[in-house]
Amino acid sequence: MKKLSFLLLCALFAIHATAQVPARKKQMIALANKTLDFAASQYKLMMKQVPDSVLPRTTNNKDGRLVTAKSNWWTAGFYPGTLWYLYEYTKDETLKQEAIKRDELIEKEKNNKGTHDLGFMMYCSFGNGYRLTKNPAYKAVLLTSARSLSTRFNPKVGCIKSWDHGAWEFPVIIDNMMNLELLTWASRVSKEPSFDHIARTHANTTMLHHFRPDFSSYHVIGYDSTTGAVLNRNTHQGAADSSAWARGQAWGLYGYTMMYRETKDKRYLDQAQHIAGFILGHPRLPADLIPYWDYDAPGIPNVPRDASAGAVAASALLELSRYTTGTISARYWNAGEKMLESLCSPAYLATAGENNDFILKHSVGSLPQNSEVDVPLTYADYYFVEALLRYKQWAK
Ligand code: GLY
After folding, report:
1. Does residue 41 fall inside a structural domain?
2. Contact 72/112 with Cβ under 8 angstroms?
3. I want to staple 45 with a disulfide (CB 3.0 to 4.6 A). Which of 53, 58, 357, 360 is the partner?
4. pLDDT one-digit tens code per residue, 31-76
5. Whose CA is nearest to atom 2 of ligand 1?
6. Is 186 inside a domain boundary?
7. Per-residue pLDDT tens over the stretch 240-265
8. What burial class does residue 164 get, using C-beta atoms within 10 Å of its C-beta: 0-12 exposed, 13-18 middle, 19+ buried?
9. DSSP classification of residue 355
10. What is the best residue among 58, 115, 121, 175 to mutate for testing ligand 1's pocket, by most ligand atoms within 8 Å of CB?
11. CATH number reported for the structural domain that contains residue 348 in this entry
12. 189 C-alpha to center of ligand 1: Å?
């Protein structure tokens, strides 16, 4: 009899637990819709204040004014990219026309061979534009951009060179993983295997040299361009060479999740899971799951959070949960969901008309350079909106 009551209790608990899951998802979908509505209204305000010749970048934290960027800055594509996402959600022609106008402004960067950031710049903008419109002119822009990016690949090193500046001979930053999606896309569309080869080789080399035994990553690896040997292990935007810069960890997580999607190479899935393990198991990851700007920042907990790192990680974790099963998948999904819930709260979400019409507050660009500290950032908005759309699509 006792055993029967116990079994009955277990069954009731299981029924209750499964009934809770859809309720939580329903609640989060409603929150995502509300936040996306708000995001669209913020960006419609932003459209009116950004001059035609530039792109919104951040806020000056001294005088509170909008800071803009020219088309060759690495963040140029995020504003049109966010507009495309918001158009996808709202079907509002005004947002689409603004996205088209801003894409036109950055089109010339397709020939820019001086930056590794062409993936960010062109794939987030024209990539989303092409996905939604199938405009053949956008496809041509993307293929030219992929060719330009490929010129930075050095087969001896096995990587795309990140910067042409700084003290390094051949610097590669973890962020560069994000630029590979442009190349895997280009290979699929053009049937030219060389783009895919470059993307995989870069990802493999990065896996070999950027990661520590705990699967945190260095920010910058300096290579010898002739021999491919590692010369330096440094940071540029983190607290120390040996520290775990929060956005860098998120770029790695997103990058390897994306590379698994694109190639189905299990090594990339394993790497993404190892990085997720580092982030989610970190003793200094705050309860709301939005990281401090560096996991090893001196002064934690009295240091700025980085909402951009939270947004990138949320988007990546939601995707990673789709490539895994059982409790592991649920762990990634729940963490991404929690990050989104936190970002949707007044602690991070702007109110109407404030924040220079950006959506999220409290990101950090580069604290060691005292640049963009505790401000909105255009890429925090982009990955936040992406993650909200992913949540809505995949929760079902
Ligand atoms: N790619 C530069 C950054 O994440 O700040």
Report:
1. yes
2. yes
3. 357
4. 999 999 999 999 999 999 999 999 999 999 899 999 999 999 999 9
5. 175
6. no
7. 999 999 999 999 999 999 999 999 99
8. exposed
9. G
10. 175
11. 1.50.10.10
12. 28
Q: Tally the domains of the chain.
A: 1
C-alpha 218 – ligand 1 centre gap (Å): 13
Q: Which domain holds residue 302?
A: 23-52+245-396
Distance from the alpha carbon of residue 247 to the mean position of ligand 1, in angstroms: 7
Q: Looking at the domain assignment, is residue 324 inside a domain?
A: yes
Output the CA 365–ligand 1 centroid distance in Å. 7
Query: Which residues lie with the beta carbon below 6 Å from any ligand 1 atom?
Result: 74, 175, 237, 247, 365
Tokens at residue 335, please?
């963490």
| Gyration radius from the chain CA atoms | 21
Which of the residues are catalytic?
A: 117, 175
Question: pTM for the complete prediction?
Answer: 0.94
Q: Which atom of ligand 1 is nearest to the CA of 175?
A: 1
Selection from 199, 56, 191 nearest residue 119 by Cα: 199
Ligand 1 nearest atom to the CA of residue 247, by list position: 4
Nearest-CA neighbor of 350 among 376, 382, 378? 376
Q: Domain for residue 231, yes or no?
A: no
Q: Is 208 exposed, middle or buried (0-12, 13-18, 19+ CB in 10 A)?
A: exposed
